[in-house]
Amino acid sequence: MRSSSTADPAKCVVDCGDLPFVIRRDGTWLYRGSPIARKPMVCLFSTVLQREEDGAYLLETPAERGRIEVEDVPFVAVELEWCGQGSGQTLCFRTNVDQCITAGPEHPIRIRHDLLNCEPTPYLHVRDGKGKFPIEARINRATYYELVALAEPGMVRGRKVLGVWSGGVFFSLGDLSSCDATK
Predict the structure, then answer these.
(1) Do residues 43 and 49 make contact, with C-beta atoms less than 8 angstroms apart?
(2) Which domain holds residue 18?
(3) By CB distance 3.0 to 4.6 Å, which of 18, 25, 126, 165 could disulfide with 89?
């Protein structure tokens, strides 16, 4: 083990290297290959989850820190509540660790498309990391379908898209087809 100082020279954080934690794509937290069955323990660990400037994930307490493996992103948005409509609409997501996040300027929604099958995968910004890489939640399929049901046409950078409003921001869920059904 090696010690590294933070900004306060009186405070030393022990670097524990790689820790035996894995967060699976489905949101399951593993310790030494076994699922952590106690949800309050997972919720506690989630509060000390950080993201480094290089994109690596780690668990960091005031005394210790160590890198962990994350298969995709550490959280899953599992439920959606909304109120209002149009630009006055608000979308609130609940994650698998029972954190509620309202989409908006501080918590944008983004869509990533799989390079092989072009399937969309939606993500929600949970909190900032230490660099350009945020900590995100993947929006599960059922919740994504709820978003699509709320979607409306709009324009983003000159392109016709289908999207949703939340917190005064329009989030694109994908391009509208350029086919004209009337021809």
Answers:
(1) no
(2) 2-70
(3) 165
